[in-house]
């Protein structure tokens, strides 16, 4: 579910994993149309890393 949020609303994904400062930076990046794709990729990698770190 978090991966889907990371793709659709990248800034919200950072808030769900407890990184509000990164979420604000991601929101600023997402406000530009060109920046949305890198923001989604960054959020997806961060959510995946959070999941891996939590399960180890």
Automatic annotation (TrEMBL):
Protein location: Membrane
Origin superkingdom: Bacteria
InterPro entries xrefs: PMP3 (IPR000612)
Transmembrane regions listed in the UniProt entry: 28-47
An annotated GO cellular component: membrane
Keywords in alphabetical order: Membrane, Transmembrane, Transmembrane helix
Segments forming a coiled coil: none
Main subcellular localisation: membrane
Family the entry assigns: Belongs to the UPF0057 (PMP3) family.
Name listed for the protein in its UniProt record: YqaE/Pmp3 family membrane protein
Native source species: Aliidiomarina soli
Lineage: Bacteria, Pseudomonadati, Pseudomonadota, Gammaproteobacteria, Alteromonadales
């Amino acid at each position: 579910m978090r991966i889907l949020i990371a793709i659709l609303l990248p800034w919200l994904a950072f808030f769900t994993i407890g990184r509000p400062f990164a979420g604000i930076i991601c929101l600023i990046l997402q406000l530009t149309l060109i920046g949305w794709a890198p923001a989604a990729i960054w959020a997806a990698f961060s959510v995946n890393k959070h999941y891996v770190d939590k399960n180890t």
